[in-house]
Amino acid sequence: MNEKDAKVLLKKYRAGTLTEEERIILESWYLELAASKESPKITQEDLQRDLKNISKGLPGFKKAEPSLSPYVRSLLIAASVLLFISISIVFYLNREGPPLITQKVTNGYLNEIAPGGNKAVLTLADNSQVLLDSNSSTLSYKLNGEKNSSNVTVQYNTISTPKGGEFKLELSDGTMVWLNAMSSIRFPTSFIGDSRKVEVVGEAYFEVAKNAEMPFFVKSDKQIIEVLGTHFNINAYHDEQSVKTTLLEGSVKVYTHDKSASKFLKPGQQSEIFENENLFNVSNIDTETAVAWKNGYFRFVDEDLKSIMGKLSRWYNVDIEYQNVDPKLKFGGVISRSRNLSQVLKLLELTGNVKFKVDERRIIVMP
User: Fold this and answer.
1) Domain final residue pick, 285, 305, 340
2) What DSSP state is assigned to residue 47?
3) Is there a single domain that holds both residue 237 and residue 311?
4) Which of 13, 128, 191, 281 is deepest in the core (most CB within 10 A)?
5) SS (H, E, C) 260-329
6) Is the CB of residue 109 less than 8 Å from the CB of residue 119?
């Protein structure tokens, strides 16, 4: 990306009007800039004010249609396509002032393991099961003209995604739910009474339909979330050390599982409840990292190797084995979830600190 286009994006960044594609382009440009010895003609004041924040993930951006000339728009679209197709992505190993590595990756490096896709299993109230795939990528329970009343018999269904699966669901009240791999949601076919309640295992993103008279409750491992209408992400995998709730819009109240403690979250905050603890932390975070999976890409920011490999294991349906390597090594980078696993592993290898061996669907991590 040339400096003219960079100035355009920096201006839109300050205005809070970056689109998803533009944000990724700007982040990658920043990382490449940090890795090079060349100084741009953009003023140092601009860099200090803007790029410092970009390195943290562009907090507070909002989606908007770009107000660009057709020429600049075509440049940005071309850059975005090139970014995702040729995978000219940056990964870095965070040590003392982290060195960065940029490399183009081609196919054929390792055994090709394709990414996951739309697939899930719907378990009905009578325990019968229906396979859901790309032909039914969104399942809707929206009721047409039917009012919640005592005459409606409530039945509970469950949608579960396997390794390598994701799915989108519309509940009967209009609430939208995105399920990540190895996740499930148990929900009523219609909401009746004075509240709406669902149960989640794994990771899910919610856009809850507003209804002040029927608060929405999400129960997951170690916690209960109460909301009226909001956008938030839950990460509640059993193999993770904590349960994380990230709020993007609105407000939620997070309770410990026994309701002995609770916290209100504001947009941009994340609560974290740790294993075998009944208290939790609340911190301000980069929400885009938390929902990157829902938007179709991996985004690692100072993330340890074990956490990264856990995400790859779930999305690519592979098992992970470590051989004399420190799982606490930290990496960062951005890459589309539509890429083959070999391309992601190659990028990690370019840091010079890890190597991988692929044995069918088993990934061996070595120093």
Assistant:
1) 285
2) I
3) no
4) 191
5) CCEEEECCCEEEEEECCCCCEEEEECCHHHHCCCCCCEEEEEEEEHHHHHHHHHHHHCCEEEECCCCCCC
6) no
Assigned domain for 110 exists: no
Q: Are 196 and 214 in contact (CB under 8 A)?
A: yes
| Same domain flag for 142 and 273 | yes
Strand 269-274 vs strand 262-265: parallel, antiparallel, or unpaired?
unpaired
For residue 109, being part of any structural domain is answered with no
pLDDT of residue 61: 29
- Residue 277 binned pLDDT confidence (cut-offs 50, 70, 90): low
Instruction: Give strand pairing partners of 247.
Output: 232
Q: Are residues 183 and 264 in the same domain?
A: yes
Other beta carbons within 10 Å of 269: 20
Q: Give the residue-averaged pLDDT of 113-131.
A: 93
- The pTM score is 0.73
Q: In CATH, what number is assigned to the domain containing residue 135? A: 2.60.120.1440
pLDDT, position 133: 83
Q: 113: number of CA atoms within 13 Å, CB side?
A: 26
What pLDDT score does 140 carry? 86
**Angle at alpha carbon of residue 269, lines to 213 and 186, rounded to 5°:** 50
Domain presence at residue 193: yes
Tell me which residue range forms the domain holding 345.
290-366
Same domain, 327 and 259: no
